[in-house]
Write a structure and sequence with these properties.
This protein is an alpha/beta fold. Helices cover 46% and strands 10% of the residues. Helix 9 links the parallel strand 5 and strand 6. Helix 2 packs antiparallel against helix 12 and helix 9 packs parallel to helix 10. The structure holds glyceraldehyde-3-phosphate. Its EC number is 4.1.2.4.
Length: 309
């Protein structure tokens, strides 16, 4: 939709209220036993299994893709009463140069390839190159593109320019889904997070995502709460249900459960499905698999048995 700054520019977030609400979420639901295993399986289905390292290789990406196709050991899948091969991650997320390797490794298994683009993580390259990077990733087979926004435009409250840039990125994505990374750890205030969320949504983001994983502070519950409220407000305004992706620093099964509770409490059950909820993580799956193994066998396996992701 066109930029409508009047719809958000006067909103100011009450930081201590947001922090209090976020802190209270943990006590709202206690998910135990079989329910916990079911929630953890759902968390796996929402993971964008990620590798975004300078030393990534095609071989590492191929191993990650093998894990994305079969994220849970077959004996655990069977013990949970699930169809063999039915549990997969939400996507695999890589740098643009690794998209061909991921596409080849995933074949037609149904797991989409997500690519970061637009000068990830800082986004400080000319717009023309940022758009060309999106076009390259899409032509190489990525069906989801994680773009980064220009943080400086948020500090200047230059909503027009921010909206124009993200709209151009949306159009370069073509049919690919676009996730807009706000890099909230660099936005200074929750009010900035709310405003940037609204601009990204108005410019056509299918998802808004907290972080690149490279900021010194990545996904937090208060930031996520504010972004969920923006998704709610944007839905009221436009009728469009955008998705949410916390990313960066999510490493434990407990983290996955906390964010699922947030989604259920703030946006409802539809936002606990991979269509509207993803978790960007490079090292969360191992702990979830360990917890599921514990819930099935009553024993914890050694962490090194879950070497990948
Ligand atoms: O988008 C995903 C993030 O880059 C992953 O961050 P992480 O390595 O802290 O899990």
């Amino acid at each position: 939709m066109p930029l409508d700054a009047d719809a958000f520019a006067r909103v100011a977030v009450n930081t201590s209220a947001a922090e209090r609400r976020a802190a209270s979420l943990g006590g709202r639901r206690s998910v135990k036993k079989a329910w916990q295993a079911a929630w953890l399986v759902r968390a796996i289905q929402c993971i964008d299994l990620t590798t975004l390292a300078g030393d990534d290789t095609e071989a590492r990406v191929a191993r990650l893709c093998a894990k994305a196709r079969n994220p849970l050991r077959p004996d655990l899948v069977e013990a949970l009463g699930l169809e063999p091969g039915s549990v997969k991650t939400g996507a695999v997320c890589v740098y643009p140069a690794m998209v061909p390797a991921a596409v080849a490794a995933l074949g037609d298994c149904g797991v989409p390839v997500a690519s970061v683009a637009t000068g990830f993580p800082a986004g400080l390259v000319p717009l023309k190159q940022r758009l060309a990077e999106i076009e390259y990733a899409v032509s190489a087979g990525a069906s989801e593109i994680d773009i980064v926004i220009s943080r400086s435009l948020v500090f200047k409250a230059d909503w027009r320019q921010l909206h124009d840039e993200i709209t151009a990125m949306r159009s370069a994505c073509g049919k690919a889904h676009m996730k807009a990374i706000l890099a909230t750890g660099e936005l200074a205030t929750l009010t900035n997070v709310y405003h940037a969320s609204m601009v990204a949504l108005m410019a056509g983001a299918d998802f808004i995502k907290t972080s690149t994983g490279k900021e010194s502070v990545n996904a937090t519950l208060p930031v996520s709460l504010v972004m969920c409220r923006a998704i709610r407000d944007y839905r009221r305004l436009s009728g469009f249900s955008a998705g949410f992706k916390p990313a960066g620093g999510l490493k434990t099964a407990k983290d996955a459960l906390s964010w699922l509770v947030l989604m259920k409490e703030e946006l409802g059950t539809d936002w606990t499905e991979p269509e509207r909820f993803r978790i960007g993580a490079s090292s969360l799956l191992a702990d979830i698999e360990r917890q599921i193994e514990h819930s099935v066998t009553g024993r914890y396996s050694a962490a090194e048995r879950h070497a990948m992701a």
